[in-house]
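(Protein data)
===
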Amino acid sequence: MTQVVRRIDVLRNTTSVREILQVATSFEASARDFYTRLTPKVSKKIRYLVEELAIEEQGHFDLLTALSARDDLAEQVKLQIQQPASDSKFSDCLHVPDLGEHPDDQAVLQYAMGREHVAMTHYTELARTAPAGPIQDLFQFLASEETTHKLELEKLYYEIIHRGGGV
């Protein structure tokens, strides 16, 4: 009986690669839309950054969409993989905050750093569990991209908030 319960728990904690790709595509679209709407509201000091974030999220959206549509990967996207522990936090990021009409730089940067951290963690876990090949390569690429974005945001945050300087 215990083995049956464990097996059911394992099945409950798995999902298809297709579902993972759909959630990731929605994640990137919500980020793109959020940053696009936020651009005219932020200070000129960080406007370029918010514009860049929107463009980068669009690039991730395009990659995920293209991969999901590839006929040669039809069998791989049907595979069941372990749902990452980060899945709920990642899914929570589909809902973006209302930072108001004139958000301060610190709030924008804190939100962006947090979002990049969640994405970095999630894509890293997916790369670890995804089947070898293009899907795993995609998640490794996205994990690396999100890590780079997070580090750049942390550097900018330090410059603007802690040192009081401009960029």
